[in-house]
UniProtKB/TrEMBL annotation:
The active site is at residue 30. It comes from the Bacteria. Pfam families: PTS_EIIB, PTS_EIIC. This is PTS transporter subunit EIIC. The keyword Kinase applies. Residues 8-90 form the PTS EIIB type-1 domain. Keywords: Cell membrane, Kinase, Membrane, Phosphotransferase system, Sugar transport, Transferase, Transmembrane, Transmembrane helix, Transport. Coiled coil: none annotated.
């Protein structure tokens, strides 16, 4: 009961700071963030929101996103939804309704404000891809952990009567993941979800083994999630075409039939083969890249992942991860990319020591570090390294060194992979898998984290601050504090007007 009260209290603290129930147009959540659609962005009190104990940070994109962390967000969101519903039910009727012209002007203004940022066609496409795959992550995590547990029991020879059941639990979702991808794709692109799932189900149906296309027999699952994605998109366009041309009296019979028939034939005699070739090429290229240039590839991937996250471009990797998990049982890219978070943690610890007088930033670091070790990097990114400027770059350096470490062992033939996507940092340990035993895989990944922590710390401590940057930020934010309460590691006169919240230039 105490936990429920805490979650409701968090929701109750957030609601008035985003303008109340009447200002909330939509509510959803991902792994770490409460995502809100808002009628009027100006009603949000950003600084007050950041001061709520459970809030790790805020991010503004197509929705207003409040970072609460994994687990917490899934518990706070239902309470927040209840409070919004209660608030709307109790809200008094407006004194005077807006005119049609006023409503149109207000709507146009809100629409322009929401789309002004990050609304390029490419980013919108990547956002759609994320909307398709992100809902699948909890199942991927749960099945991945069960798969790891099953593998451990099999290797130890324990519970032989239970391991087949665990294998079924772990493999069932992956065997049908194409259906879920098809369902979500049709939903995202404006079609009937069940028709997208029906067309995608053709890909995993065992009977396709009796069909020949392009001079060879098809294999169940050929094309995988990429084939399901393409099949469902095609089904949406066929369905929309049918809705325009089929008479309403015949729509209920003709539209679903033509949608499945046309999309199914194209899928069987085209998409499955093409998507299968693309999927195979992705797996082959990933193996080749890490086998021949593992250290260099890890350096680049680990070093540039944080900027990709900042730009939203990391979403393009989700189908690639899923394809590798389908083919090989794990993705070799995620453990390398996870090193970016290790560099971020090391950089934050260095900032903690370099700014002994800035109580505000040090409090943020102390509260955000536990989440950072578990792979939740937003609080450290948006609350520490990005506003400071240089430490964001040196955090990337830490990620590059950690990625190079893991990539080097991949180059030596010790593949380190993850059986699911989503977790990072220490939270990735239960999902690790490889080709040389769990002990070696865990040791390599742990070594990469340590290298990332150390490199991020050293790079930030020695190169993350100029004298001007220290002078601006290494000042007390507590008006009652004495300026000399802590030694200055780089004594430089700080101007009396210096503040700790203005972003610094690189």
């Amino acid at each position: 009961m105490a936990t429920e009260d805490k979650n409701r209290a968090t929701a109750a603290a957030i609601l008035p700071l985003v303008g109340g129930a009447a200002n909330v147009s939509s509510i959803s959540h991902c792994m770490t963030r409460l995502r809100l659609g808002l009628h009027d962005r100006s009603l949000v009190q950003d600084e007050a929101l950041k001061a709520v104990p459970a809030v790790m940070g805020v991010v503004e994109d197509d929705t207003y996103q409040i970072v609460l962390g994994p687990g917490t967000v899934a518990r706070v969101t239902p309470e927040f939804e209840k409070l919004v519903e209660e608030g709307r039910a109790e809200a008094p009727a407006p004194a005077a309704p807006l005119t049609a012209e006023e409503l149109a002007a207000q709507g146009a203004e809100m629409k322009a404000a929401r789309k002004a940022r990050n609304a390029t066609p490419f980013k919108l496409f990547l956002r759609r891809i994320a909307n398709i795959f992100v809902p699948l992550i909890p199942a991927l995590i749960g099945c991945g952990i069960i798969a790891g547990l099953n593998g451990l029991l099999v290797n130890l020879g324990w519970l032989p009567s239970v391991t087949p059941a665990l294998a079924a639990m772990a493999s069932g979702f992956m065997a049908l993941i194409a259906v879920f991808v098809g369902f979500n794709t049709a939903k995202e692109f404006g079609g009937t979800p069940i028709l997208g799932g029906a067309v995608a189900a053709i890909i995993v149906f065992p009977g396709v083994a009796n069909i020949e296309a392009f001079g060879q027999k098809l294999s169940p699952g050929q094309g995988g999630v990429l084939g399901a994605l393409g099949a469902a998109v095609l089904a949406v366009y066929v369905e929309k075409w049918c809705r325009r041309w089929v008479p309403e009296a015949l729509d209920v019979l003709v539209t679903p039939t033509l949608t499945v028939l046309i999309s199914g034939l194209v899928t069987i005699f085209g998409l499955m083969y093409v998507a299968g070739e693309i999927s195979t090429a992705i797996g082959t290229f990933a193996d080749w890249l890490l086998s021949n240039g593992g250290a260099g590839a890890g350096l680049v991937l680990g070093g540039f992942f944080l900027p990709l996250v900042m730009l939203g471009l990391h979403q393009a990797l989700i189908p690639i991860h899923t394809t590798l998990i389908e083919q090989q049982g794990y993705t070799v890219l995620l453990p390398i990319l996870a090193m970016a978070g290790a560099g971020q943690v090391g950089a934050a610890i260095a900032v903690f020591f370099r700014l002994p007088r800035n109580e505000s930033i040090r409090r943020t670091i102390k509260s955000a570090l536990p989440a950072g070790f578990l792979g939740v990097g937003e609080p450290l990114i948006y609350g520490v390294s990005l506003p400071l400027g240089r430490p964001f770059v040196t955090a990337c350096v830490g990620g590059a060194f950690g990625g190079a470490f893991v990539g080097f062992f991949n180059q030596l033939g010790d593949a380190v992979g993850s059986t699911a996507i989503g977790p990072s940092g220490w939270a990735l340990f239960p999902l690790l898998d490889g080709n040389h035993g769990l002990g070696a895989t865990v040791a390599i990944y742990a070594g990469g984290l340590l290298v990332g922590y150390l490199a991020g710390f050293v790079a930030t401590y020695f190169f993350g601050f100029s004298k001007d940057l220290l002078a601006e930020f290494n000042v007390s934010q507590d008006p009652t504090a004495t300026p000399a309460t802590a030694p200055d590691p780089d004594p430089a006169p700080a101007p009396a007007s210096a503040t700790a919240k203005e972003p610094a230039a690189l």
